[in-house]
Fold this protein.
Amino acid sequence: MNSIVAQSNTQTGILIEGSSSAYVSACSSNSNLNGMDVENTSSVIFNGNFSAERNFVFGINLGATSSATVNAATVSASRNTLGIQISLSSSWFFSNPAATVQANNNATVGLTVVSGAHLFAFGGTLITSGNGLDGLDIASRSGIDLDAGAQASSFNNQRDGLHVEELSMVNFFNNPQFSGNPGFTTIQLYNNAGNGVSLLNNSQLHMFDQAKVLAHNNTGLGIQADDGSSITLINSSIQNNPTDILLTFASRGDFTANTIGKVSCDATSLIRGLSGKTCPLP
């Protein structure tokens, strides 16, 4: 579909279902119940720009093992109740360094990956800002993998920049010999009203090779890990938060080549890589 405007419908503006597929370029879906809904093992491929604004529920929803692929395109979801939801074992793939996804100024969460779903970025840019709750929310055995110099920014949200819970996982990595990109895969988390990162309920944030996290100037914590969650942190800068890293209730931190301000952990937690420091730390 090309140059379609779906607007002011009482139901979904663009519905793709029943093992169907659609190629989208230069389209928008505004002021509907949902902007775009992809269901029942269907797929959408963004070859050109798409925007979903002011929809009553979702800007974009993937459900029931469906998929989305962003090629050299910008996909934007703004001023919806929830920007983008990837759910029910669905997947979202950034296939091109020119792929950009923006989920800004939504009433609740910018982008959520939930119920066994997954987001994978082989390069590209992800921006979530100005949302009423979390910028990025990963829950219920779901995950994000960022590779090949992908860049993610989550800032000015009213709760957490990145919120991960319920046995979910976030991985950042870049092997230049494989990806061909000599840079660092990076996530920036700043000026959020809650934490830069919250890891809860046995969730994980792991980093490998050329990757880094920059978590600065959040109102809450830089990074929180609780209830058996774990952090592997390399090449990163976690500074200028009230407490930069806090580990509690059997959580674990593995730190290599970072710049970190204040670290705190209780007697049930474990850390390594900070010279001369063990838990508990005040």
Summary: The longest helix spans residues 176-179.
